[in-house]
Amino acid sequence: MDSLRGQGGIQMLLTAEQEAGRIVSAARTAKLARLKQAKDEAEKEMEEYRAKLEEEYQTQVSGTDQEAAAKRLDDETEGRIKNLKESSSKVSKEIVKMLTKYVTTTAS
């Protein structure tokens, strides 16, 4: 009778070991599925965040930054025009003298 109990005990242990193996396998599968789901969720959140940042950037570029750049270019252009006018007024007398000298000397 002890031998039957021993075999029954061994059989119970084998059955319990197989059940434990199935439980561990199911847990691993569930863990891998959860990791994949977490990765997918993280990628989705990254894409949404990236799209949000891109939209904000495009809004800034198309809005106030363009206005500021246009104003800066206008200011630079006005400054250059002013400098050219000042330079031309300084040398205009000399140019008139040079042209008068050229016209009077070559015409003779």
Automatic annotation (TrEMBL):
Annotated protein name in UniProt: V-type proton ATPase subunit G
Transport among keywords: yes
Function: Subunit of the V1 complex of vacuolar(H+)-ATPase (V-ATPase), a multisubunit enzyme composed of a peripheral complex (V1) that hydrolyzes ATP and a membrane integral complex (V0) that translocates protons. V-ATPase is responsible for acidifying and maintaining the pH of intracellular compartments and in some cell types, is targeted to the plasma membrane, where it is responsible for acidifying the extracellular environment. Catalytic subunit of the peripheral V1 complex of vacuolar ATPase (V-ATPase). V-ATPase is responsible for acidifying a variety of intracellular compartments in eukaryotic cells.
Domain of life: Eukaryota
Record-stated family: Belongs to the V-ATPase G subunit family.
InterPro entries named in the record: V-ATPase_G
Membrane topology: Peripheral membrane protein
Protein's organism: Capsella rubella
Entry annotated with the keyword Transport: yes
Assembly and binders: V-ATPase is a heteromultimeric enzyme composed of a peripheral catalytic V1 complex (components A to H) attached to an integral membrane V0 proton pore complex (components: a, c, c'', d and e).
Localization, UniProt: Vacuole membrane
First-listed, main subcellular location of the protein, grouped into a coarse class: membrane
Keywords associated with the record: Hydrogen ion transport, Ion transport, Transport, Vacuole
Entry GO MF terms: ATP hydrolysis activity; proton-transporting ATPase activity, rotational mechanism
Chain segments carrying region Disordered: 55-75
Cross-referenced Pfam families: V-ATPase_G (PF03179)
A GO CC annotation given for this chain: vacuolar proton-transporting V-type ATPase, V1 domain
